[in-house]
Amino acid sequence: QVQLVESGGGVVQPGGSLRLSCAAAGFTFSGYGMHWVRQAPGKGLEWVAATAYDGIKQFYADSVKGRFTISRDNSKKTLFLQMSSLRPEDTAVYFCAKGSRAVALDYWGQGTLVTVSS
Amino acid sequence: DIVMTQTPLSLSVTPGQPASISCKSSQSLLHSDGKTYLYWFVQKPGQSPQLLIYEVSTRFSGVPDRFSGTESGTDFTLKISRVEAEDVGVYYCMQSIQLPYTFGPGTKLEIK
After folding, report:
1. What residues pair up with A34 in beta bridges, in sequence order?
2. Looking at the partner chain, which of A45, A50, A95 has a beta carbon nearest the beta carbon of B99?
3. In percent, how much of chain A has pLDDT > 70?
4. How far apart are CA B105 and CA B6, in angstroms?
């Protein structure tokens, strides 16, 4: 079955950097686009970034553009989110999700918490 | 960006009774390929979101048939024919016709 396991969250100071990972299993990772979606404490869902199946194209929410970079290693079936210039408002649980044009965000990981605080 | 709104933001339902959640998009979600890219997700307490319905009315794998989705233009409705205790959670609609994908604010379903 499809499994997505995020890691890399933690506490970081404003202006700092963090790299999230999402390990995939149970499907042909190289055949699907992948997404990051975040949820601030007690709030709703916010789409953050996406990468095409081959990693060539990336897309970002305006709120993170220029600060976050999504990438993937298809040989290791792993998705990444490099976050820099972090702000307190980036504090959230970050979920990775599998997607395609046919069915977006069909499977989600359990999430990893990022806290930006001094 | 496409704005998604939901009503109500919360509802309390007796088990066995129906429930209905409305979602409205600020723009048409009908693509030139003939599909309408409206999704419903549920986030149960302490869990990650899970897909319920895609393309307005197609139930995802394993989703009970008491869940159904309908549309009328830019207005969409998720219906639960008979609410069960396990249905408690926050329900979100989402559009994927264009990036950025945008979600509604969520509707919290509680059981009486």
Report:
1. A51, A98
2. A50
3. 100
4. 6
Rounded-to-integer distance, Cα A103 and Cα A35, Å: 12
* pLDDT one-digit tens code per residue, B34-78: 999 999 999 999 999 999 999 999 999 999 999 999 999 899 999
User: How would DSSP label each residue in A26-61?
Assistant: SS-GGGSEEEEEEE-TT--EEEEEEE-TTSS-EEE-
Residues B52-71 as b/e (b if ≥16 CB within 10 A, e otherwise) read: bbbbbbebbeebeeebbbeb
Q: Which two tokens stand for residue B29?
A: 């979600």
Q: pLDDT tens digits for A11-33?
A: 999 999 999 999 999 999 999 99
Contact between residue A1 and residue A104 where contact means Cβ atoms under 8 Å apart: no
Q: Indicate the helix (H) or strand (E) that contains B53.
A: strand B50-54
Instruction: From residue B111, give the alpha-carbon distance in Å to each of A103, B12, B86.
Output: 30, 5, 9
- By CA distance, what is A101's nearest residue in B? B96
CB contact under 8 A, B105 and A44: yes
Instruction: Please classify residue A33 by burial: count the beta carbons closer than 10 Å to its beta carbon, then call 0-12 exposed, 13-18 middle and 19+ buried.
Output: buried
